Amino acid sequence: MSDASRSVVEVPPSAQARIQQWSRTARRIRVPLGFLFAAIYLWHLYYGPPSFASLGLSLLLVVPGALLRAYASGYVKKNAELATTGPYAYTRNPLYLGSMLMAFGFALASRSVAIVLLLAVLFTVIYWPTILSEEIFLREAFPEYAAYARRVPRLIPGLTRGQDGVGKAAHLNQGGFSAQLYRKHREYNSALGAIAMYAALLLRIFIGSRHF
After folding, report:
1. Where are any strands of DSSP class E within 55-204?
2. pLDDT above 90: percentage of residues in the chain
3. What is the model's pTM?
């Protein structure tokens, strides 16, 4: 795989300040934008309920997304160690990727192209600057991150493991999945939230079929 496909272009110092400012702005507006998107999503469902078919299709994204987040959370020691094993051997941002799969899965359940496109815009505006800002921090905090980034794609997983040759620094997390870390990060909340969301969507289908 080429360097371009792995997105390893380092950010020039002159651009880092702009990225970090963009990231700070994204963090400030992500909550109100999230509520706005939720309102639009609910408004759409009020006038056009999902179908059993669209819910079934959404599971093809939501289930893998929830599993990926759960799996990745067992490797994360935030700001203490650089995770390079497990899902981090295939993508540098498995948690964000899992969130995207879940979000687009529920967008697919809505049967609305507009909802899907709006979600794509929100992810670009909110998550992309956050990912770039985090990369700046990781490059400064972990000298081996540059080598890791050359071997592992930023978001879309590679077909082969990419941690080989990164090194074995003291602050490099090369262990296996930790159930303790999974519980610490409370990643089970994502699964519970997805279940609650599907319960609400099924209820909307039932109410729609009854013409209430």
Report:
1. 82-83, 172-173
2. 53
3. 0.82
